[in-house]
Amino acid sequence: MTNTQLLKIAEDFGSPVYVYNSNVISQQYKRLTSAFSSVNKVKINYAVKALSNISILKLMKTLGAGLDTVSIQEVQLGLTAGFKAEQIIFTPNGVSLEEIEKAAILGCQINIDNLSILEQFGTKHPDIPVCIRINPHVMAGGNTNISVGHIDSKFGISIHQIPHILRIVENTKMNINGIHMHTGSDILDIDVFLYASEILFETAKNFKNLDFIDFGSGFKVPYKPGDIETNIEEFGEKLSIRFNEFCKNYGKELTLAFEPGKFLVSEAGQFLAKVNVVKQTTSTVFAQIDSGFNHLIRPMLYGSQHEIENISNPKGRERFYSVVGYICETDTFANNRRINEINEGDILAFKNAGAYCYSMASNYNSRYRPAEVLWHNKEAHLIRKRETFEDILNNQIQIDLKPKKAKI
């Protein structure tokens, strides 16, 4: 998309606004499937939590993806988008047995990550196929909040508890049809991922009726020019060889599954915000925009860096700015960042805004959540309206707080 097209979107739909490019999503999907083209059965389950707009889910369906879900509401979104239940894997953490049973009754693939629920579910529903999420005790990921495969993580069943799993499976006679792991996000070292994969292969040998092995995801995408990223082509070549070798020894052709979210949608998204004020202090020049961490929390939550471009003045002289929001507490997107000269009214574009951005937005400070626009077939399509004051009041119940008159 060109700056001119982005500025037109900001003009037509207002700011702030999220914009997603369907062509980039399609390219990323094809890149991932091509990396594993030597494996006969590959299943890409898009991680709904990354970006859950129903139009994005429908786009994933046209590409041939399934869905990876973590809540019954995400399951319902997937069904509404036209996915069949068997195309959806349900991988929650810490939810009730009742919620898991709801997904199972609908017909989703169930993925269980703790011994207690595994035993309870297996006792009540021994005939329903279940995938088991293993914690390989491998530290991977770009931030402690998104590294989920290490020994202190709340996710998965420890590899040291394999005997406990086998005992439960034997006692309940339940059907284990898949093994799964997810070590974390922003994985750069493919050797670490391959090491964790060997642990998963070793675990899989304990189960004789598997249909698939799910290797999670967490591939790193570039966040700025020249940034490093996961070499998905090299990883695909190496893991494919090992996977095909395992299937041959296992005696059955299994499905190789992944559940990418960020990899598919991060680079497809841009967040457009208008500069309200350029504020010079004794030490800093602030560019204060018409948004805050209520719309884009990742820089404050994870310390993540989003490249920021002044699309209103892309050829202007570069100066140093701290880009901040309008929330009434520390609300910083970038500190002392080189950006083309900014004037009040300019539109700034935040790159890599497709994953975990709108989906983590809130109404903090009673601000409206922004609109979402999909750039598809060279046209801008509104896929979510900007909220209104009526949306803020929706579901609130105003009660009568007048003092009651004393009875005489």
From TrEMBL:
Species annotation: Lacinutrix venerupis
Annotated metabolic or biological route of this protein: Amino-acid biosynthesis; L-lysine biosynthesis via DAP pathway; L-lysine from DL-2,6-diaminopimelate: step 1/1
Modified residues (N6-(pyridoxal phosphate)lysine): K49
One Pfam family named in its UniProt record: Orn_Arg_deC_N
Name recorded for this polypeptide: Diaminopimelate decarboxylase
Swiss-Prot/TrEMBL cofactor(s): pyridoxal 5'-phosphate
Residues engaged in binding substrate: R298, Y302, E329, Y356
HAMAP family: LysA
Similarity comment text for this entry: Belongs to the Orn/Lys/Arg decarboxylase class-II family. LysA subfamily.
Enzyme class (EC, first level): lyase
Residues of the Orn/DAP/Arg decarboxylase 2 N-terminal domain: 25-266
PANTHER family: DIAMINOPIMELATE DECARBOXYLASE (PTHR43727), GROUP IV DECARBOXYLASE (PTHR43727:SF2)
Entry keyword set: Amino-acid biosynthesis, Decarboxylase, Lyase, Lysine biosynthesis, Pyridoxal phosphate
Gene3D superfamilies in alphabetical order: Alanine racemase, Lyase, Ornithine Decarboxylase, Chain A, domain 1
EC number assigned by the record: 4.1.1.20
Biological process (GO), any one: lysine biosynthetic process via diaminopimelate
Source taxonomy: Bacteria, Pseudomonadati, Bacteroidota, Flavobacteriia, Flavobacteriales
Residues noted as binding pyridoxal 5'-phosphate in the record, renumbered to the chain: G218, Y356
Active site residues according to the UniProt entry: C328
Subunit description: Homodimer.
Recorded GO MF terms: diaminopimelate decarboxylase activity; pyridoxal phosphate binding
Function text: Specifically catalyzes the decarboxylation of meso-diaminopimelate (meso-DAP) to L-lysine.
Reaction catalysis annotation: meso-2,6-diaminopimelate + H(+) = L-lysine + CO2
